[in-house]
Each structure stands twice: as C-alpha cells, then as structure tokens.
C-alpha cells in the first residue's frame, strides 16, 4: 500500500463549532496528499446535519451523514467507518485544523505492511493566546493534545490518540469498531480512552500489528477558554480515571495500564521536580505546575478507584452502553452504488482476559 486512498472522518455535534468545522474541512481539502473523501458525521443534531448538507451540497468529495448509532463520539466514528470507501480511514477533531502534509505523513507510514495505525502530533491553540502558566505540558492530553512524555519522531506506540489518527480498514475488519460504552457524549462528562481500548483490542486480534506515531503529521487543536481553567482540568483528570477503569476491566490491567505506569512513575515525578526547581528560581508558574501535576494524578487515581468499583458492582466493562453496536450496511447519505460491509462490533467475550 504505497499510495493508499484515505477517507477522513470528522465528527461534529454542535452548531457552536460551526466555524471550526468549516476550518477542519478546509484543511483536509488543502492537503498535499489529497483525501479520497471527507465524511462529516453529525451526532443526533438534525439542524446541524441539514445546515452542513446545504453548505457542502455542491462540494465534491464531502459527504454529510447522521450518526447511525447511539449518541456519542464512538458511534459517530463507527458510522464514518461503515460509510468510508478508503483503504485507510483517518480521524480529525471537529475543532482542529491539519497541516498541509498531514495525510502525506500518514500515507508514508503504511508503506510498511505491518503498520495498521498511524497517529500524529496535536498542538494546542489556546483561546487566551498562550499556555496558562500553571498548566503542565505533561497533562496536555487533558485538552486533547500531545503531552510531554511521549517519545519524539516516528516511533512505535501502544495506542494512537483518536483526534489525530488513522487506521487501515482491515484493522476494523479484524478487531471491530470503537466501543460505544467508552468516550465522549457531546458536552457531558469528558470521558475518553475509546481509542486506547480499540488499539489494545487490535493488537490482540493481529499479534504482529504495528502502531506508530509520526510527529510530523501535525494538527492544531483549539482549546476554548473554559478548558484553560483548573476546574476543567480537575474534572477531566477524574473522568480519565473513570475511563481507564473501563479499559482495564475490558482488556485487563496489564495492557490497560501498561503505559500509564511509566507515565505515573517517571514522567510525572520529573515534571514535579521541574516545577519545584522553577519555583525556587523564581520562574513564573513553577509551583502551580507542580501542584497541578499532583492534583491531576490524584484526580485520575480517584476516578480509577471509583470506576473500578462501579464496574465490579455492575459486572460489565462498559456500563454506559452495550458493547455490541450494530452498524448499518450503508449509512444514510452514502452513495447507493457503493454499499459497505458492516464493520463488526467488538466481541465482548474476546475483549476480556
């Protein structure tokens, strides 16, 4: 696959991000490696679906689809997978813009037949114009961005980050789609980890599979003002702990927390040490960053403990929604001449240790 056709899926849910969505689509259409198509999947918002359909009704290569599954990002992505025609399916957040060579870097990764997923680097665009002094780079994942502690360059990873990622179609045929009991549901509690669970499940389905991140595949992700505040930071870290508990329950703690152990025992202590050093040297934000790292770790640990207890009581890995989500043979709005084979949903039995 030296020159794969790439379908790009952008999931949207609110008209408040109208200009962001238009910018995301424009960035895809400006790629040096042209996308085969861009699929805009709208999450149970008929008004936004109609408005986007009118906006792009005369634009070749852009299709607007309603989410064919339950509400939430995972089902929206599954809708895009089922409708896509590309050999590779890439995902871009609706409030992000991709640099011109984004898809080219993805395509280069698939020259190696062992590679089944390629991710990239996500840079924050702060609403205030600059990073809050107290906000540690080690926690940039809180705002959906690449964080300090990830290795630079083009490296093999356990999982890619869902807002800037791509997968071979065969990956979904082997492992199924995104589990709908994990991840975001609009503006409700900011859960996550759906891509982590999928990637671990994918590695089990295809033992020789390779997943990589190429930090030259860059997107710029908008961080709105409310997410620059400590209240969101605290909520998001707690929600991440809840999500990690679901992942660990599904795929086992060994794999589900493999990267997190290194992060918590090496990356975060080093971050605290830098913050304390900066505070002693009189540099702005040092004490705040050190304190935020400790608070973030405690918040995630607390969320994990609560999530693990809930999962044990309910006897299921994904209490929020059934893991088996039937996907349509052809999503509404898809071309009638090219129906797609349904993407299999995750197997609840094989996903557990």
Structural commentary:
The protein has helices at residues 18-29, 46-55, 73-83, 102-109, 169-175, 194-205, 230-251, 253-256, 258-280, 286-314, and strands at residues 6-12, 37-42, 62-66, 88-92, 96-98, 115-126, 154-156, 164-168, 210-223. The protein is built from 10 helices and 9 strands. The chain has a domain at 6-227: Spore Coat Polysaccharide Biosynthesis Protein SpsA, Chain A. The chain is α/β, with parallel strands linked by helices and 353 residues long. Strands 1, 2, 3, 4, 5, 6, 7, 8 and 9 form a 9-stranded mixed sheet that branches.
User: Segments where pLDDT lies below 50 for 5+ residues?
Assistant: 316-353
CATH-defined superfamily of the domain at 6-227? Spore Coat Polysaccharide Biosynthesis Protein SpsA, Chain A
Q: Would you report the number of β strands?
A: 9
Rounded to an integer, what's the Rg over CA atoms? 20 Å
If classified by CATH, what would the architecture of the domain at 6-227 be?
A: Alpha-Beta Complex
Query: The CATH topology of the domain at 6-227, please?
Result: Spore Coat Polysaccharide Biosynthesis Protein SpsA, Chain A
| Fraction of residues in H or I helices | 25-40%
Number of helices: 10
Q: Tell me the overall shape.
A: globular
Proportion of strand residues: 15-25%
Topology pattern, helix = H, strand = E: EHEHEHEEHEEEHHEHHHH
Q: Separation of termini?
A: 33 Å
CATH class of the domain at 6-227: Alpha Beta
What does the average pLDDT come to?
86
Largest sheet descriptor? 9 strands, mixed
Q: Which structural class matches the secondary elements?
A: alpha/beta
């Amino acid at each position: 696959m030296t020159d794969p056709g790439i379908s790009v899926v952008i999931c949207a849910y609110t008209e408040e991000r109208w200009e962001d969505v238009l910018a995301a689509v424009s960035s895809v259409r400006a790629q040096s490696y042209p996308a085969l198509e861009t699929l805009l999947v709208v999450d149970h918002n008929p008004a936004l679906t109609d408005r986007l359909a009118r906006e792009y009704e005369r634009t070749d290569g852009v299709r607007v689809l309603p989410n064919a599954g339950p509400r939430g990002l995972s089902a929206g992505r599954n809708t895009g997978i089922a409708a896509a025609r590309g050999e590779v399916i890439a995902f871009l957040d609706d409030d992000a813009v991709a640099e011109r060579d984004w898809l080219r870097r993805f395509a280069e990764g698939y020259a190696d037949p062992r590679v089944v997923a390629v991710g990239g680097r996500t840079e924050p665009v702060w609403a205030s114009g600059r990073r809050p002094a107290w906000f540690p780079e080690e926690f940039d994942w809180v705002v959906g961005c690449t964080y300090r502690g990830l290795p630079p360059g083009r490296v093999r990873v356990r999982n890619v980050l869902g807002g800037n990622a791509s997968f071979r179609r065969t990956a979904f045929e082997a492992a199924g789609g995104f589990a709908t009991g994990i991840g975001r549901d609009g503006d409700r509690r900011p859960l996550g980890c759906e891509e982590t669970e999928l990637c671990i499940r994918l590695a089990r389905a295809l033992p020789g599979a390779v997943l990589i991140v190429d930090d030259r595949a860059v997107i710029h992700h908008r961080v709105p003002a409310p997410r620059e505040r400590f209240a969101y930071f605290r909520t998001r870290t707690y929600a991440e702990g809840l999500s990690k508990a679901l992942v660990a329950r599904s795929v086992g703690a060994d794999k589900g927390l493999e990267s997190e152990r290194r992060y918590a025992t090496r990356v975060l202590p080093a971050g605290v040490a830098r913050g304390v050093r900066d505070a002693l040297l009189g540099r702005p934000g040092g004490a705040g960053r050190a304190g935020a790292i400790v608070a973030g770790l405690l918040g995630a640990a607390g969320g994990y403990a609560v999530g693990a207890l809930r999962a044990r009581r309910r006897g299921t890995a994904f209490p929020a929604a059934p893991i088996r989500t039937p996907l349509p043979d052809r999503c509404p709005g898809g071309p009638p001449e090219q129906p797609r084979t349904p993407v299999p949903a995750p197997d609840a039995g094989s996903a557990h240790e």
